[in-house]
């Protein structure tokens, strides 16, 4: 019997004081809606965002922050060309790739964490 029923959220680490940059990038560039953090967790810093499929992307503060250069979340996008144009308009560098068998691109958040966006 499988007890795991799915994925609830992904947390990416960021340095203290990351909240304005996280809101600008994840909310402004990626267009994700902010989700209020539970009161008990607000003092820890960071910011949470809703993904369109009901899952969440959490940006959490860690004291000895180091960006994730390999491990990363892969987000889906219905129009990768439009997403790439949006990134260009916001001066966010992307690197297209098709080695995974589907059109995709890689980029980094303001903290240096690697992100993948997949067409589909």
The CATH topology corresponds to 2,3-Dihydroxybiphenyl 1,2-Dioxygenase, domain 1
- Helix/strand-derived class? alpha/beta
Strand content bin: 25-35%
Number of domains: 1
Supply the CATH superfamily name.
2,3-Dihydroxybiphenyl 1,2-Dioxygenase, domain 1
Shape: globular
What are the low-pLDDT stretches, counting only 5+ consecutive residues below 50?
none
Class in CATH?
A: Alpha Beta
Organism: Deinococcus arcticus
Protein name: Glyoxalase
Domain VOC: 6-120
InterPro entries: Glyas_Bleomycin-R_OHBP_Dase, VOC_core
General description of the model:
This protein has a single domain, classed as 2,3-Dihydroxybiphenyl 1,2-Dioxygenase, domain 1 (Roll), CATH 3.10.180. The mean pLDDT is 95. By secondary structure, the protein is α/β, with parallel strands linked by helices. The N and C termini lie far apart (30 Å). The longest helix has 11 residues, at 19-29. The protein is built from two helices and eight strands, in the order E-H-E-E-E-E-H-E-E-E. The strands form two sheets. It has a four-stranded mixed sheet, with helices on one face. Residues 6-120 form the VOC domain. This is Glyoxalase. InterPro entries: Glyas_Bleomycin-R_OHBP_Dase, VOC_core.
């Amino acid at each position: 019997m499988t007890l795991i029923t799915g994925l609830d959220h992904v947390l990416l680490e960021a340095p203290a004081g990351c909240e304005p940059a996280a809101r600008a990038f994840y909310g402004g560039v990626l267009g994700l809606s902010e989700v209020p953090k539970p009161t008990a967790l607000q003092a820890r810093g960071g910011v949470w965002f809703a993904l369109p499929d009901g899952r969440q992307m959490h940006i959490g503060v860690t004291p000895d922050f180091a960006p994730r250069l390999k491990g990363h979340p892969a987000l889906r996008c219905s129009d990768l060309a439009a997403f790439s144009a949006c990134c260009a308009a916001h001066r966010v560098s992307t690197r297209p790739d098709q080695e995974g068998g589907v059109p995709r691109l890689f980029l980094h958040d303001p903290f240096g964490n690697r992100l993948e966006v997949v067409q589909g």
